């Protein structure tokens, strides 16, 4: 590991420690939540690179594309997409995680192609229209902070997309129980996407824990 990479890791861990102290619903209490092979950083979830491969997100790599990542967390998806796309924005209402994303972008020399917004999605507005919007476990979040209706949340996505732009949705993890709020939320999300976007594909995969699943959807704006 190079000196610069060691310094980056030191910065990231320092910011994670501050985030855990300030956020009683932090995802980072046991270990860092996200992983990024490119910077040799290990966390709880699959690495950004593995998720991109498994979800087929490299279909969106385009040097002309403008991309928005809702709930960008450590900013690892923002940074990886910025290596392949024109401009990538991340929304993350957590200043410590935004600082991590900015530090990684600086290390990768892509700061001029990235921008992070410290705001909840329901208050976010932008003069930019996006070719791709990623909603990766950011609707009806496990920490309870995001509780928009599916109509409100995905209508806002529709407004932010360029004509023909793509929405990629990943649900939070759920059990297939009618009373499970995350199961209900993903059902509402899929129904709204199917009824308001075109070329919609949906699928479901196991989520890692026994009897838990995640659903996915890919659609385009009319």
What does this structure look like?
By secondary structure, the chain is an alpha/beta fold. The protein has a single domain (47-220), classed as Rossmann fold (3-Layer(aba) Sandwich), CATH 3.40.50. The chain has six helices and eight strands. It has helices at 3-22, 48-55, 76-82, 95-107, 150-160, 181-196; strands spanning 66-70, 87-91, 114-117, 130-136, 161-170, 174-175, 198-206, 212-220. Strands 1, 2, 3, 4, 5, 6, 7 and 8 form an eight-stranded mixed β-sheet that branches. Strand 2, helix 4 and strand 3 (114-117) form a beta-alpha-beta unit. Helix 1 runs antiparallel to helix 4. The longest helix has 20 residues, at 3-22. The N and C termini lie far apart (47 Å). The mean pLDDT is 97.
User: How far apart are the termini?
Assistant: 47 Å
Radius of gyration: 17 Å
CATH topology: Rossmann fold
Percent of sequence in beta strands = 15-25%
| Overall pLDDT metric | 97
SS field, number of helical segments: 6
Number of domains: 1
* CATH architectural arrangement: 3-Layer(aba) Sandwich
């Amino acid at each position: 590991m190079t000196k610069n990479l060691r310094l980056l890791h030191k910065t990231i861990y320092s910011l994670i420690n501050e985030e855990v102290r300030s956020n009683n619903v932090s995802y980072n209490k046991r270990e860092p939540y996200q992983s990024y092979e490119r910077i040799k950083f290990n966390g709880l979830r699959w690495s950004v690179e593995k998720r991109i491969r498994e979800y087929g997100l490299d279909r969106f790599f385009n040097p002309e594309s403008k991309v928005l990542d809702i709930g960008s967390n450590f900013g690892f998806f923002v940074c990886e997409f910025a290596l392949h796309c024109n401009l990538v924005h991340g929304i993350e209402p957590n200043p410590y995680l935004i600082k991590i994303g900015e530090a990684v972008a600086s290390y990768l020399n892509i700061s001029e192609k990235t921008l992070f917004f410290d705001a909840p999605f329901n208050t976010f507005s932008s003069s930019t229209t996006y070719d791709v919007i990623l909603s990766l476990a950011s609707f009806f979040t496990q920490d309870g902070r995001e509780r928009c209706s599916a109509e409100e949340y995905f209508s806002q996505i529709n407004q932010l997309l360029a004509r023909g732009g793509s929405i990629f949705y990943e649900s939070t993890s759920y059990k297939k129980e009618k009373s499970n709020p995350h199961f209900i939320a993903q059902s509402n999300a899929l129904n709204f996407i199917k009824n308001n976007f075109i070329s919609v594909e949906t699928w479901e995969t196991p989520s890692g824990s026994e009897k838990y699943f995640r659903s996915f959807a890919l659609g385009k704006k009319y």
